[in-house]
Amino acid sequence: MNAVLPHAGTPRATVEVPMLREQMINFLQATVIFLLITNAFTITAAVCAIRLLTGAPLERRQAAGVIERRLELMFPSKR
Is residue 65 in a domain? Predict the structure, then answer.
């Protein structure tokens, strides 16, 4: 197997080392991105499972609604 070298007379080892380095960097970058994406899916699945187990609705609640409920618990109104 004869490799096509970019410059005539360039030793093969000096061409392969930078290529191997670039391939390794690209592989590591792809691995980090893959792990970040899978971690995001895992966190999403865990949050959904916790919400299902605790009986919390899946839609987001308004911040004012949460504050209002907490104030109602701390200072119950007389009805």
Answer: no
Domain count, the chain: 1
Q: What is the Cα–Cα distance from 18 to 41, expressed in whole angstroms?
A: 35
pTM, two decimals, is: 0.49
CA distance readout (Å), 28 to 22, 23, 25, 35, 37: 10, 9, 5, 11, 14
The pLDDT of residue 13 is above 80: no
Cα gap 69→79, rounded to integer Å:
16
* Amino acid in position 4: V
The range of the structural domain enclosing residue 41 comes to 14-56
Other CB atoms within 10 Å distance of the CB of residue 71: 11
- Asked if residue 59 lies in contact with residue 49, where contact means CB atoms within 8 angstroms, the answer is no
